[in-house]
Amino acid sequence: MIFIMMGAFPCTGPWAGTLEDVRAKDVLTCGISEGIPGFSIPDSTGKWVGFDVDMARAVAAAVLSDPQKIKFVPLASKQKIIAVSSGQVDLTSRTTTWTLKRDGKQGVDFTKIVFYDGQGFMVKKALGVDSATKIDGATVCVTAGTTSELNLADFARANGLKIEALVFDGKKEALNAYATGRCDCFTTDVSQLASLRTTLPNPNDHEIMPEVISKEPLAPLVRHGDNQWKDIVTWVLNGLVAAEEYGITSANVLEMKEKSENPVVQRMLGKSGDTGSYIGLDKDWMVRVIQAVGNYGEIYDRHFGPATALNIPRGVNRLWTKGGLQYALPIR
């Protein structure tokens, strides 16, 4: 198979495809954030944990039968697109907004939206500001290579605000600049603001403004042109949501496979039919996925639920049957 990139991305020559490459090297290489609590961050032992981490481990479980056969590569925001399009990583599972330009011009394909978010602002309470519309004349820390830059400029123009943007290569650098007083505000996705606020010396001294100024649908990325690999990642993620819909958990998945009379569950778990063969996998691909990381709801609760320090309400990330936007395509 010959892989061809159009536009700014040249043909790379003979290429076997990502699935074959991953199986040959027996490890999945995944781009991840540089460290955002709840999404992806090393724990005290150096092991990567988080919502985005579990999404990637689900893919490793499906393809390599082992969620631990994965190498995580920390990437700054401006690196994530080129890392995928150039083949440095097999996918990125990190906070990346699905936009027209990225999807159509930058050599990557998005898979499935796994987290619906929106951009907000964080300020020090001492500033005495209760709305982002009152930050006229403020300096705002923002990360390069993100949708946040353009959104900030649009917000300022729409509200007649004079704002000075201080742009940093990495989120850690931007947050540190905000924490040390180089800027008045810090802007990024609301969920990340909640996450990063917990890393500040005195989290309660900082407040997230009520305004959400953009839509930020976040989805893992794969290299453009490899349809089978895109299908695999997409359907693994669909399977996580479908498992929650049908009550399949890490604790009951084997019992559900043997005892459920629901034909949808039987197909998903390989009791009937062979859905895995449609994307180059075996019958038990979804069983391994759910055993490894649980369903979508389990993953969300583990990293953002009421028992966590973040406690981010699911909101629009609830299942569609409960008034949210998470909806799995039919596995059949």
Note the main attributes of this structure.
3-stranded parallel beta sheet; 2 domains; 17% strand; 5-stranded mixed beta sheet; 332 residues; transport; 16 strands; alpha/beta; Bact_solute-bind_prot3; disordered N terminus; D-Maltodextrin-Binding Protein, domain 2
Structure, briefly:
One of its GO terms (biological process) is amino acid transport. This protein is an alpha/beta fold.
Explain what the structure shows.
It is a single chain. With 332 residues, the protein is an alpha/beta fold. The protein folds into two domains: 186 residues, D-Maltodextrin-Binding Protein, domain 2, CATH 3.40.190.10; 99 residues, Periplasmic binding protein-like II (D-Maltodextrin-Binding Protein, domain 2, 3-Layer(aba) Sandwich), CATH 3.40.190. The protein is 34% helix and 17% strand. A five-stranded mixed β-sheet has the order 12-11-13-10-14, with helices on both faces. A three-stranded parallel β-sheet has the order 6-3-7. Strands 1-2 form a two-stranded antiparallel sheet. The longest helix is centred in the C-terminal third of the chain and has 19 residues. It is globular.
* SS content category: alpha/beta
**Count of spatially separate domains:** 2
- Which regions have little confidence, pLDDT < 50, spanning 5+ residues? 1-14
Care to count the β-strands?
A: 16
| The CATH H-level homologous superfamily of the largest domain | Periplasmic binding protein-like II
CATH architecture of the largest domain: 3-Layer(aba) Sandwich
Class of the largest domain, according to the CATH hierarchy? Alpha Beta
Please tally the helical runs, counting DSSP H or I stretches of 4 or more residues.
Answer: 12
Q: What is the strand content?
A: 15-25%
Q: Which overall shape is indicated by the principal axes computed on the Cα atoms?
A: globular
Oligomer: single chain
Cα radius of gyration in angstroms: 21 Å
Estimate percent helicity. Answer: 25-40%
Termini separation (Å)?
28 Å
SSE succession: EEHEEEHEHEHEEEEHEHEHEEEHHHHH
Taking strands numbered 1, 2, ... along the chain, how are they ordered across the largest sheet? 12-11-13-10-14
Could you report the average pLDDT, rounded to the nearest whole number? 93
Biggest sheet architecture = 5 strands, mixed
Q: According to CATH, what is the topology of the largest domain? A: D-Maltodextrin-Binding Protein, domain 2
Family: Belongs to the bacterial solute-binding protein 3 family.
Organism: Desulforapulum autotrophicum (strain ATCC 43914 / DSM 3382 / VKM B-1955 / HRM2) (Desulfobacterium autotrophicum)
Protein name: Amino acid-binding periplasmic amino acid binding protein
Keywords: Signal, Transport
